[in-house]
Write a structure and sequence with these properties.
The chain has three domains: 70 residues, no CATH class; 97 residues, Immunoglobulins (Immunoglobulin-like); 100 residues, Immunoglobulin-like, CATH 2.60.40.10. 18% of the residues lie in helices and 32% in strands. It is built from six helices and 18 strands. Strands 1, 4, 5, 7, 8 and 9 form a six-stranded mixed β-sheet that branches. The radius of gyration is 74 Å and the shape is elongated. The N and C termini lie far apart (210 Å).
C-alpha cells in the first residue's frame, strides 16, 4: 500500500477543499475512481510516479477537475444519512369493473329486504273476571216463516218446530203488523195444525188489502196454552181477480104443446157447450120474462142433470091458465156457475 504522503494529487487537494465528514466520503470516491493509478508498478513509489503514462496523468487531472466541481456544489453542512431504498411497488390486483347504475339497481332488487318484525304490543293487565250471571231462560224457538202470493191466494210455509211438547201450530192473520196469540184486536186464527211435519197453509184474504201473518207452536198447560215458539211476521197483499168477461148464453129453441086434460108439454134444443151442469125449467103467471136465478113471480119447476133429456110435461096446469116458460142450461166455465144456454120465453094456456 502507498503511504499517505504519497497519495495522488487529486486526493490531497480534495482534503484541503472539503472539510469534515465530506472529506472522507469524497476521498473514498477518489480512491475508487483512480484505483488503478494507486497500485505501484514497481517496488518503489518513486518508480511508479516516474513511470506513470501520460494517459494516467490525464485521468488524474480529470478526476481532480470533477472533485473540485463537486466540492463547490457540496453543502458545507454534514451530509444526511443516505435514504433507504424505496420498496419496489407491488403490482396491485386488477380491480373488477364497477357495476353500472342499472346493475346496482338489479342487485339491490335481488337482495331480500329485511322486514322489521312488529314489536309485540305491551301486555295489558287482564281484567278481573266478573262473576257470570245466571243463565237466562231459553227463548222460544224461532219458526222461519215465508210467504208468497199466487193468483188471489196467500201461501205460507215455515221451518218445522223441533222442540218437545208440541201440540199445535196456530196460524194467525192480522190487519196490522202486530200479530199475537192469543189473538188480540184485529187478529184472527185462520189455521190450527196438529201435525208438526205439516208446516204450510193457504189463505184467501180480502183482495187489495195488506194482511200480516204469524205462526205459533203451542201446547196445553194447566193455565192454558203455552207458546213454545213463534215465527217472524210476514205481510202480503193478495190481488183482486180481474172482472170476468160477461158470458153471453147460447140460444136454444123451446116449444110448448098444449094437451087437453094432460097439461103443457115442453121440448127444447140441446146445449152443446162444455161445462154443462143442468137444465133449469122455470115458469111464471105474472112475469113475461122468467129467469134463473129466480126473479119476481118466477118459479123453478124442474132441474135436469142429463144433457140428453130435452122434454118435460107440466101437468100442474088448469084449464084456461096461461103460463110463460123458459129453459136455461147452467154450467161452470172456470169462474163459477153461469148460464150457458137459454131459450126465449114461450107462453101457453091449458085446456
Amino acid at each position: 500500500m502507498p503511504k499517505p504522503d504519497k497519495l495522488p494529487r487529486g486526493a490531497t487537494r480534495l482534503t484541503a477543499a472539503v472539510p469534515g465528514a465530506l472529506t472522507a466520503v469524497l476521498l473514498v470516491g477518489a480512491v475508487a475512481f483512480g484505483a488503478t493509478s494507486l497500485r505501484p508498478a514497481s517496488p518503489t513509489a518513486e518508480t511508479a510516479e516516474a513511470a506513470e503514462p501520460p494517459a494516467a496523468a490525464a485521468g488524474a487531472d480529470e478526476t481532480k477537475h470533477r472533485l473540485d466541481h463537486d466540492s463547490r456544489q457540496a453543502d458545507p453542512k454534514p451530509t444526511a444519512a443516505p435514504a433507504k431504498p424505496k420498496a419496489t411497488a407491488t403490482a396491485k390486483p386488477t380491480e373488477k369493473p364497477k357495476p353500472t347504475p342499472d346493475e346496482d339497481t338489479k342487485q339491490v332488487a335481488q337482495q331480500p329486504v329485511a322486514t322489521a318484525k312488529p314489536k309485540p304490543a305491551p301486555a295489558q293487565p287482564k281484567p278481573t273476571a266478573k262473576p257470570k250471571p245466571a243463565p237466562a231462560p231459553a227463548a222460544p224457538v224461532a219458526l222461519a216463516l215465508e210467504g208468497w202470493v199466487k193468483d188471489t191466494k196467500v201461501k205460507l210455509a215455515w221451518k218445522p218446530f223441533g222442540g218437545d211438547g208440541f201440540e199445535y201450530y196456530k196460524v194467525v192473520r192480522s190487519t196490522d203488523a202486530t200479530v199475537t196469540w192469543p189473538a188480540g184486536s184485529g187478529d184472527t186464527v185462520i189455521g190450527v195444525i196438529g201435525d208438526p211435519k205439516a208446516p204450510w197453509w193457504a189463505d184467501k184474504p180480502a183482495c187489495g188489502t195488506a194482511s200480516s201473518y204469524r205462526v205459533f207452536a203451542v201446547r196445553s198447560g194447566s193455565g192454558g196454552y203455552v207458546t213454545l215458539g213463534a215465527s217472524n211476521v210476514v205481510t202480503l197483499t193478495a190481488p183482486c181477480a180481474p172482472d170476468a168477461t160477461p158470458h153471453v148464453p147460447k140460444p136454444i129453441t123451446l116449444a110448448a104443446e098444449v094437451r087437453a086434460g094432460e097439461g103443457i108439454k115442453l121440448a127444447w134444443g140441446a146445449c152443446a157447450v162444455d161445462g154443462f151442469a143442468a137444465y133449469k125449467v122455470v115458469r111464471s103467471k105474472t112475469n113475461g120474462d122468467p129467469r134463473y136465478p129466480l126473479n119476481d113471480g118466477t118459479e123453478l119447476i124442474a132441474a135436469i142433470g142429463d144433457a140428453g133429456q130435452l122434454h118435460l110435461l107440466d101437468a100442474a096446469v088448469g084449464p084456461g091458465e096461461t103460463w110463460t116458460y123458459r129453459v136455461l142450461a147452467i154450467g161452470d166455465v172456470g169462474h163459477g156457475l153461469v148460464v150457458l144456454c137459454e131459450s126465449a120465453a114461450v107462453s101457453a094456456t091449458g085446456q
